[in-house]
Amino acid sequence: MKLHLSRISKRLFSGNSKNHEGKHKGTSDRLLAGLIVVLSVFGVLMVYDSSVALALRDFSDQYYYIHEQLKWLIIGIAGFLVASRVPYKTWYALALPFLMIILTLLVAVFIPGIGVNAQGAHRWINLGFMNVQPAEIAKFVIIIYLSAWFSNPEKNRFGAFLLLLLAVVGLIMLEPDLGTSVIILVIALSLYFFSNSNIQHFLFIVPAFLGLVVLLAVVSPYRAARIKTFFDPQHDPLGSSYQMRQVLLALGSGGWSGVGIGRSRQKYEYLPEANTDSIFAIIGEEIGFIGASAVVILFLGILWRCFRIAGKAPDTFSRLFVLGVAMWIGTQTLINLGAMVALIPLTGVPLPFVSYGGSSLIMLLIATGIVVNISTYRK
């Protein structure tokens, strides 16, 4: 690992990579930017709509959650605008420092006085004006670092890749946060695959990590309960099955056109996590199958533009970065929606750009801002 970091640090700061030559600059992908803004603004509205009862109960202020989400959206949009204007090659040089910082932050969540312990989980660091979730930042950092690393040909890096993956994913699993761990695994393995690495490595790494995820899910009592609920939805209807049953009730009551904006019944403390993990259930209840399908189409549009930009990316680093962001958004969306329609067990993964949460929204907007900047370059 030490030799690996030494080699990478020389490449990252030398600026001599043939993958980073100047390219012709054109027009940015305005359609992608528009889709992201529309989805983010829609998310703020749905956060307010789904959180009125919770905000009144917890803070005696029905606007509490929308104020917070608006604050984060403004920070995120500022980050998006800056990232869309900063030449993407700048991020290549920051890959190694970012990795060192995120590893430090992932350790810091366990330090008393720095990390925030909520309901037995160590996932946040209190900055005073907001809580930061390092695991969300780790998704962004792992994309930058692996894109920079894999943009240079190198033999025998499989062992170093595994060691890095175990360090990052291991720390996140200890928080515990299995959902984010799975997303980072998918991102990392996808980038390894897209970098034309030895396909035989997947015959080892994929089954090994899948087995580890299953083991962690089974040995944890609350995860095991969710898995049992998935296979037997009638099990413990007032306990472990409660959230899933309420999600399905919300989606079912929405029908084709929904019960109407602001008229959800489930948001009045019937549905747990209505403004975060389960926000899509409120969307389906209020605007129905047609409205929920429109939201899915927005996500598909973002993924389409990302893959289109990756196909025209000027070099390996930029291509891998865009593909990594696409895998991040696609995997997280698929896991969240899959849980909402009972195709997979509940995981606690938020819906990108839409669910309440500052760290996720800000990092997604910065990442997509970089994608928009890459779209201005051509081969």
Overall description:
The protein is mainly alpha-helical and 379 residues long. The chain has one domain. Helix content is 66%, strand content 3%. It contains 14 helices and 3 strands. It has helices at residues 2-14, 30-59, 64-85, 89-93, 95-108, 134-150, 158-173, 178-194, 202-219, 221-231, 242-254, 279-311, 316-340, 358-375; strands at 115-118, 121-126, 131-132. Strand 1 (115-118) and strand 2 (121-126) form a beta hairpin. Helix 2 runs antiparallel to helix 14 (358-375), helix 8 (178-194) packs antiparallel against helix 13 (316-340) and helix 13 runs antiparallel to helix 14. The protein is globular and about 55 Å long. Residues 1-22 have low confidence and may be disordered.
Describe the SSE topology.
Blueprint: H1 2-14, H2 30-59, H3 64-85, H4 89-93, H5 95-108, E1 115-118, E2 121-126, E3 131-132, H6 134-150, H7 158-173, H8 178-194, H9 202-219, H10 221-231, H11 242-254, H12 279-311, H13 316-340, H14 358-375
Antiparallel strand pairs: 1-2, 2-3
Short synopsis of the structure:
The chain is mainly α. It has helices at residues 2-14, 30-59, 64-85, 89-93, 95-108, 134-150, 158-173, 178-194, 202-219, 221-231, 242-254, 279-311, 316-340, 358-375, and strands at residues 115-118, 121-126, 131-132.
Distance between the termini: 34 Å
Instruction: Report the mean per-residue pLDDT as an integer.
Output: 84
Number of strands: 3
Topology as a string of helices (H) and strands (E): HHHHHEEEHHHHHHHHH
- What does the largest sheet look like? 3 strands, antiparallel
Number of helices: 14
Strand content: under 5%
- Low-pLDDT ranges: 1-22
Helix content: 55-70%
* Cross-sheet strand order for the largest sheet: 1-2-3
